[in-house]
Amino acid sequence: MNKGILKSPFGRLPDDTEIDLYTLSNANGLSCKIVTYGATITEICAPDRAGHFANIVLSYDSLEEYLNGKDYRGAIVGRVANRIARACFTLNGKTHTLAANDGLNHLHGGIKGFDKRVWRAWPQPDAKDAVGLLLRYESPDNEEGYPGDLDVFACYTLTDADELQINYTAHAKAPTLVNLTNHAYWNLAGKGDILRHELTMAADCYTPMDDQYIPTGKIESVEGTPFDFRSPAAIGGRLPSGYNANYVFLTQKRDKNGCVFAARARDPESGRVLELWTNQPGLQFYSGAFLSKPSAGFCLETQNFPDAIHHPDFPSAIFAPGRVYQHHTVCRFSAD
What we know:
Layout (H helix, E strand, L loop, with lengths): L3 E9 L5 E8 L5 E5 L4 E8 L5 E3 L7 H6 L7 E2 L5 E2 L3 E4 L2 E4 L8 E2 L12 E4 L6 E10 L10 E10 L3 E10 L3 E2 L3 E2 L15 E4 L3 E3 L12 E2 L11 E2 L9 E5 L11 E7 L5 E7 L3 E5 L12 E5 L14 E2 L5 E11 L1
Antiparallel strand pairs: 1-2, 2-3, 3-4, 4-5, 6-16, 7-10, 8-9, 11-12, 12-13, 13-14, 14-27, 15-26, 17-20, 17-22, 18-19, 18-21, 21-24, 22-23, 23-27, 24-25
């Protein structure tokens, strides 16, 4: 496929709303497919060391499967990614009740979060070394229990340097909470499980959690624990129950764009490599234990810390009018 953007139909919702599919292709043949339902990445095709291309994210084959899916596959989640304890929070003296869609807790924006909304999309003007797609969703006051109108933009940019840049911005009309992320499941082999994938993460700390994946409020060293990925290690090598943990990037050196090197994943069989850079303070590593095919893919969700509203020592998730929420993540693809 030639470099550029191709628009095609992806199906219709029960109310007859049309869902569009956009295919972004760079000069090297790397491609990324995005649908307007959930601003969802449905496919990323990347080459192995021999130049053979494969889809390296978990995908469904049809819109109906995305409508019925429960694993947030490839979608943007929000208003608040991850969990909020007891499905409520207090802001400026007022308590807001959210959906308890994960036991007693609130997860990934609720029953109908951003992953289940239709986003408007605009291909970006042609650039010499990149193609891009801008998406917008306007979340009204009290949607899923969150206060205030929120205007959200997500821009996917595929560069000729084999990077997928994801830029999120948001504007609020009243104090609210914001913590966006993309929930892609990666499998760099394009098949099978991810247990032999080698993972490196720059974080020297993580936030311990209880049995409901709610942070205890502590920030602890990974030293001497199965959570230590500062040197490359197989995902399936140390923790039989799998991973679902938030890693901390508060002390790491950042580049001129405010981004820190977060993680590097490599499939030893194909040689495909994914590097992740972000300006966010945390990253949720989930090894896919609860998928219908356990460990078929893994998530590296750049984010603020889970349940930050209930932990004063965590970076704040409170977002006020007059500010611009800015979240930048870069996925770099290669093969060795």
